[in-house]
Amino acid sequence: MLNVTVDEIQRDPLKYLRQVEAGETLVIVRANKAIAELRPISSSKQMRPFGLCTGEFIVPDDFDDPLPEDILSTFEGK
Question: What is the secondary structure of 48-67 as a DSSP string?
């Protein structure tokens, strides 16, 4: 983790962006107080496997049927 001032970043922003791209985390400081952290975005986010919960829920046959009048009225605020 590298501490850099706002002035240093303004002088050469690409230098610091390259360091972040290389995996470095930067702490931006002003008056010796940390105000922000700049770090690389982790791109190792894995997709959930397809069919992970197969068989845990069965969609009922009437799933897309119109709602009963009393429930529909409640949704519509009547």
Answer: PPTTTTTTS----TTTTSPP
Domains of the chain, start order: 2-38 (3.40.1620)
Taking the whole predicted model, whether its pTM rises above 0.70 is answered as no
pLDDT, tens digit (0-9, with 9 covering 90-100), for 13-66: 999 999 999 999 999 999 999 999 999 987 767 788 888 888 888 889 999 999
| Cα separation, 39 vs 21, whole angstroms | 8
Cβ of 76: how many Cβ atoms within 10 Å?
7
User: Other CB atoms closer than 10 Å to residue 17's CB: what's the count?
Assistant: 13
Contacts of residue 70, defined as CB under 8 A and 6 or more positions apart, other chains included, come to none
Q: How deeply is 33 buried, as exposed, middle or buried, from its count of CB atoms within 10 A (0-12, 13-18, 19+)?
A: exposed
